[in-house]
Amino acid sequence: MNLIYGVKDKPKFGQVILFALQQVLAIMAATIAVPAVINEAIGSELTASAALFGAGVGSIVYLLFTKSSSPVFLGSSFAFIGSMLSAFGGAASMTVGYIGLIIGAAIAGIVYVVIAIIVKFAGVEWINKLMPAVIIGPTVAIIGLSLSGNAVGDLMKSSVEGGSTYVALICGLVTLAVTMLVSTYSKKTLRMIPFIIGILAGYALASIFALIGNATNNPSLVVINYSAFTDCGVFALPNFTFLRGGKEGLSGITGTYLLTLFAAYAPVAFVVFAEHLADHKNLSSIIGTDLLEKPGLTRTLLGDGIGSMAGAFFGGCPNTTYGESIACVAITRNASSVSIWGAACMCIIFSFISPFMAFLETIPSCVMGGVCVALYGFIAVSGFKMIQKVDLNKNRNLFVASVIFITGVGGMVVSFGKVEIRTVACALILGILTNLMLSKEKDEEKAE
Fold first, then answer.
1. Which of 98-107, 140-149, 240-249 has the highest mean pLDDT?
2. If you placed Cys at 308, which of 9, 259, 269, 318 could pair as Cys (CB 3.0 to 4.6 Å)?
């Protein structure tokens, strides 16, 4: 890809602010969704501001380990939702569960560290052989396609009960249209911030509909909820996980509880490792540098693992590299790691500023849905581009790609007790097994 800004390039300060804000908006919806899901399920008190702070800290840890050579943001991982629920479910009290979130993330981080040490001595060539383009390409595509349902669902979703689906759809499609038009036709600077302009356009349109709806007493026109601004104040300390868990200390932690945490977090860490590989292969194809070689898989794993520990310490949620961030790099052609540094710092600063957090929370679901159609679509297309040079006339390659696409698009999920292997990991594992099972085809062709 012909990048406007390379990884080590340093845009002007004003541009960095805009590029960083765009990254924040791209990752924001998913990052704050994880604590919301946990709260809704068990009535915990995880907060969006703490999750955002944790994501910022985790991203800084990652950037330090990778020497700012890998321009991707770390946000709350959906893969660990079941693990986080187990941390509370096996706790002697709700307060102990917060300590459990930190211990669980540490267990997952240690798994990453162990894998990183193995890679340090064994190298990465075995990974390239185990997961060639015919596996990684479809897997990256599945990362985007598996999220398509979320994007379409949000695109037609009102943030207010009684709001019209059609009004939400209009706002979402306008957001998408503005994003695409700005990215394609505008001048250089605007072309690099299409998501900011798209979100602002969608937010403004939703606000206009709300004004008309309130003025004419027509609630169906109201799809934006401003309640987050009510008594939000100016500054507020995020509800950090370590502060909540520090009230009772380790007095409620038992051996059985630790085993529960290990069983809930360690297997998922191996699953997320597979997604880590797919994300970095995808990002490598975008920036034109093999990140598994430079800065090296060992460094990216350490950054991801230690970053997850740091993120959970503050926000309760283990982190992972975000496809939305990678898609943002691809669409804007801005791979400058300075932008990721700026986004991480912004997340930390914004987590203390109540009006900004309120603004993020009031962005309508339909508006974020419009943005996500573009983001998730780019992830999928990036995967398709990886298999352009793969010979699909060979049965081996055809079957491998077929298995990954069908199990991925079909939404295959396998659970073993409290451990859940999610769609992308299932598709990747079955693709690897299929490739190994049919590996003799190459040898037979040579013999002929």
1. 98-107
2. 318
